[in-house]
Amino acid sequence: MSEKERPIVLPGEFVDEKKGRKLGDNVYEEDGKVFSKVIGIPKLTENEISVIALAGKYVPKVGDRVIGVILDVEVSGWFVDINSPYIAFLPLGEAVEEFVDTSRVDISKYYDVNEIIFCRISKVAKNKTVQVTMHDLHAKKLVGGVLVKITPSKVPRVIGKGGSMINLIKKKTKCELLVGQNGVIWVKGKNKAKAIEAILLIEKESHIIGLTEKVERMLSEGNEKK
Amino acid sequence: MESYVLELLEKGRRIDGRKFDEFREIRIEENVVQKAEGSASVWLGETRVIAGVKLELGTPYADSPDQGVLIVNAEFTPLASPDFEPGPPGEDAIELARVVDRGIRESECIELEKLCITPGEKVWCIFVDISILNHQGNLLDASALASLVALRNTRIPKLEDDKIIRGEYEGKLPVRYKPINISVAKIGNALLIDPNFEEEKVVESKVSISVRDDDKICAIQKQGSKEISFEEMDKIFDLALEKSKEIRKLVK
Amino acid sequence: MKKSEEKLIVDGKRIDGRLPDQLRNIEVKVDVISRADGSAEVAFGNTRVIASVYGPRALYPKHLQEYESSILRCRYSMAPFSVDERKSPVPDRRSIELSKVIRLALEPAIFLEDFPKTAIDVFLEVVQADGSTRVTGINAASLALALAGIPMRDLVCACSVGKVDGTLVVDLNGKEDNFGEADVAFAMMPSKNKITLLQMDGLLSKEELKKLIEMAKEACKKIYELQKKALREKYKVKE
């Protein structure tokens, strides 16, 4: 294994001794030893042992900001596809400020099927019923642009430390970019093909060290050719 | 109910008071169906199964032209349990029939060579049909036992000009061994013989073993959605071999 | 078991030249189906099986949903051209039993409780059959599940063992499967050292059976290494 890669663990492989730490995502414990549940990269801190999965579906978490697509319009709310085995519901009261008489108003005028929204997960019940809300500083309808889906666990890599990676892409491609914790990314702009290429590169090589430089190189190459 | 079963097991007891390696009361009745060439009704506690054997004329399999044909089918009749639905056999009924079939077939207990009428053309086909009449657990052992007893009392119908004369017979079906199927269920650390319905609901794993008279093992089927250790598997083999002798004594 | 005209073991070697405890040539490929959540193709000699996994995904109709866990569904199917005499694509009783058996061989390894009310679907297609199709399928399915990011306790490895012309052997090919005295399908979780599948038909003494299980365990260790290698290969840097 070259120094260019972070070490990978496979399901069932030993990660570390528990040593009093909390169990984070994608690990399980047996007799004080912690093992991985998935193919991924171990993350060991002072307080927590976890594994960052290199594949897998989005599991909704309260507080996550996600990009969703309206699936269906109901009388008093909307069903939203949040790129998860669990479908979310956006209640009317969480989407609209004013009072709406649902017997007279067809609420599809606010959000209609196939429209895209940037919203926040407000509730996840024990039975995995998910509720989202538009009552959030950043929540809005997204018009135009395209959606790219990546493995949710790789979202932090697309954002980068303090936003370094996402800002790099925005700067170099002059595109508007919005990243949902659920692995859905909204891209808008003339140069969106380049931005998408960068995102897919990050998804494919998220566990490689020196990725930022590689992405920077790739984005600059395109600009040089002009 | 389920947590009660588990609680008792941890204390070394079963809900019906049996020992871990004890069968429920077994009752066998032979020749219960007049129209069948052979039949048996078996009760394991309240579980009740009837197996009927019908002989028909048919063509042999291409790769064994001088041997009779054995076909085993099982019906989980809807009257036997609220969990059984009407319709063609589901995966559980198919699995049960195939496991019972393997126990009979691999033990070579039926002398299929003696069931050839014209090699490559005409042989006796032995249809063993299993009907579950009451599901209170351990359908597999009950079905295998009923099938074996039915086969042992099966008579071959008389043949006149290649036509079967029902009601008249010429000899018994040649059955030379008594393969016995023993299922062992694992719940926690307990290995149980003859699990009843409540126990089956909490069973983690079950292993069914078919044993011939000479202690040769002819079929194994592990069931259940949990794993088993190598040590437990060893214990299960020993337990099955031991209990098979006890059950075999009940078969004439 | 049917009797064969030809001898299956000659001078200690099997009809394909192998020694009794030798596995056939094993090929492992990952990501063979573009739109599956996880997929793999495994071949043992001429037996070739493709596995694809979809899920966890929403399960409808609702009354099938398990409140506290995901449901694992498995479908084993043989392509019509995979065998000597064309096999009808309609699922037969054998395929139905094998679908159940394979599902139960994989289930102990999966954390179904992590995804309540969903389904995880595993599809196996036997492209070419030359003995031991179910265990080859289990090896492929285990990789596909891991590649889909499904949380697992361990990978699952499987192989066949049996008795042929009086000799105990590993990894039965088609002829050995049909004409041998006994064949055993075995699967285990290699790091946990636990058995998830055991099926046998034929005639074996208890001692022979125990010896065969030991041989199967050893063979599974080798298969485990190949599975791990294939998974790690996928994530290596390619310049």
General description of the model:
The complex is a heterotrimer of chains A (226), B (252) and C (239). In chain A, the strands form four sheets. Chain A has a five-stranded mixed beta barrel. Chain A has a three-stranded antiparallel β-sheet with strand order 1-4-3, with no helix packed on it. A three-stranded mixed β-sheet of chain A has the order 2-6-5, with no helix packed on it. Chain A has four helices and 15 strands. The mean pLDDT of chain A is 90. The relative contact order of chain B is 0.19. The mean pLDDT of chain B is 94. In chain C, the strands form three sheets. Chain C has a five-stranded mixed β-sheet. Chains in contact: A-C, B-C. Chains B and C meet through helix 2, strand 12, strand 13 and helix 5 of B and helix 1, strand 10, strand 11 and helix 4 of C.
The overall strand count of chain C is 11
Q: How many separate domains of chain C? A: 1
CATH-level-2 architecture of chain C: 2-Layer Sandwich
CATH architecture of the largest domain in chain A: 2-Layer Sandwich
CATH H-level name of the largest domain in chain A... which superfamily? Answer: K Homology domain, type 1
Rg of chain C, Å, rounded: 18 Å
Proportion of residues in β-strands of chain C = 25-35%
Short summary:
Chain B has 252 residues and is an alpha+beta fold. Chain B has helices at 2-10, 91-106, 139-152, 197-202, 230-248; strands at 26-30, 38-44, 47-58, 69-75, 116-118, 122-134, 155-160, 163-172, 180-187, 190-193, 205-211, 217-223, 228-229.
Topology:
The complex is a heterotrimer of chains A (226), B (252) and C (239).
Chain A: E1 14-17, E2 22-23, E3 27-30, E4 33-36, E5 40-44, E6 48-53, E7 65-73, E8 77-81, E9 88-91, E10 116-124, E11 130-133, E12 140-142, E13 146-149, H1 155-159, H2 164-173, E14 176-179, E15 184-188, H3 192-204, H4 211-225
Parallel strand pairs in A: 2-6, 9-11
Antiparallel strand pairs in A: 1-4, 3-4, 5-6, 7-8, 7-10, 8-9, 10-11, 10-12, 13-15, 14-15
Chain B: H1 2-10, E1 26-30, E2 38-44, E3 47-58, E4 69-75, H2 91-106, E5 116-118, E6 122-134, H3 139-152, E7 155-160, E8 163-172, E9 180-187, E10 190-193, H4 197-202, E11 205-211, E12 217-223, E13 228-229, H5 230-248
Chain C: E1 9-10, E2 13-14, E3 26-30, E4 38-44, E5 47-58, E6 71-78, H1 93-106, E7 118-128, H2 133-147, E8 157-164, E9 167-170, H3 174-179, E10 182-189, E11 194-204, H4 206-234
Parallel strand pairs in C: 6-7
Antiparallel strand pairs in C: 1-2, 3-4, 4-5, 5-7, 8-9, 8-10, 10-11
